[in-house]
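Q: Convert this sequence to structure tokens.
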Amino acid sequence: MNEGQTAQEPDHTARDGTRLSRRAALAATAGLTASISGCAGRLRDLFTQRNIGQLSLTITTLPADSDRGSIRITNELEQALTTVGVDVSFDVRSGIDFNRAVLYDHEFDICIGRHPGGTDPDFLYEALHSKYVDESGWQNPFGYANLAVDDLLEKQRHADGAKRRDAVTNALETIATKQPFVPICVPEEHRVVRTDRFTGWADGHPATRSGYLGLEPVTDGETLRAVHTDSRPTTNLNPLAADYRGRGTITQLLYDSLATDDATGEIQPWLAESWEWRGATLDVRLRSDCVFHDGEPVTAADVEFTYQFLADMSGNDDDRVTPTPRFRGQIDAVEAIDVRSRNRLELTVDAGQAVGERALLVPILPAHIWRERSESPMRLGGSTLSQGTTTAVTTNNIKPVGSGPYQFANRTEGNRLTLERFDDHFTLRPGVKRPAPTVDTFSIDISPNSETAIQAVENDTADITSTALDTNHVGSVDEGGGQQLLESPSWTVYFLGFNTRKAPFGYPRFRRVIAQLIDKEWLVENVFYGHARPTATPVVEQWTPDSLTWNGQDPETPFLGTDGEVNVPAARAAFEDAGFRYDERDRLLVRQ
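A:
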């Protein structure tokens, strides 16, 4: 059920009496999966005598060898739910299948995994705005629709400075009340590096391109050796494939964007030499004489094509708009693009400057390659995108052609990906003050888990564990013999997601009780060995308002129990207060 639409709110007015914008109302109602008239009826049906039975739900998650934290959280939640009368089953899927089930097909009840988050809170616009309710990717996979939340997310998007911080606070406090998904904890990120081979590891974040550029070789080594615990980059290098892409580190090395950011969220020019704000217009000037890996020039026309293509991958040849499953929220801030010359263009932005500049972070695609990928194939590995798909999403994009600091050399599927320095990259020009590739070859070997990845660095067959270590292995790292444990800021968050398209997950009071069955502090200590921080909000700490700062318990949905053990009478009372009831066998009942 989609909240924010009830018989009492037909004029799109928020519960606090605030009149929502007509634009927000229209966006929210455009693709909703439940009608206004049916929502209240379905809510009533939850509590009537008709077709009543025990609540059964399935938790979709990842296996231990893919994400130990997710399966451990799932196990703890299953025990908690079982003790309060819920019938629980597991749906354990590989990383690709998990993403397809949750992000593409929306076939789940609740899911537990790691949300990519972001250094800027505007990622919540993409994650929760109702205009994306029927799209695919990280665009609102929860099917959440709340007009008041829409309006607050739009307000923060159009503000800057102190006004934006206030708007973000209002949005976060409302989201915490509604619990469309439950942020659980932010894991620390640790990697092992060899300081006897390279220095400068701490200068850039290893989840971004900056972590692998500007490194100083200690010896005459010509190869940077990474060990990676995710084999997907050896199978698929499509920057738009949400089922294969994580945080996009390799994408950033293969593709340039107009701007780049670091772990603090600071935006700096990259492929763009500079830009200037003129009211709501960004006047962008590209670096001259940049080329793609196949020798074709990078021009303002390629930038124009990229933003238009990401907005609609069908190339305007299809009756149905087919937006990208990645980068949707960022490019949505761009209303129009005007090419002024080969190296200059103007972007009309429907957002404040802080959000508008984040639109410059998407990978620039070569139009001469991607334009012909707009035809529509039938299926995507057994899955379908909710708004249709094109070859642009189904292609594995091997060999990839970008303009980034590294270019594709070769790959052995499931075993190794090899990149080579792109000698024509602008960072290698004299006078350019941006970190550049310092080795001829960047090889990425695949290892099955964190333990074997650590051993590869210890045995001097790798220079860095490029994926963050499982927290249970952090304490086993020996920092002698040229090895060092590198800690980096994190903006990903473990979360519990609800498919609000289904009852009773669309009911906010139900979601709040589920949130109170998770002892986040206990999980941090016992599942993550203290290498995480519990959180009541999914944004980075510098954006967390005082009202949602962790104070030993979740300030909005405190745990109903102690030391990981649920207080069953208190949990039962909470469900009953939310309007549910139990049968004589202590089973939680819902309409079937």
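Residues 4-38 have pLDDT under 50 and may be disordered.
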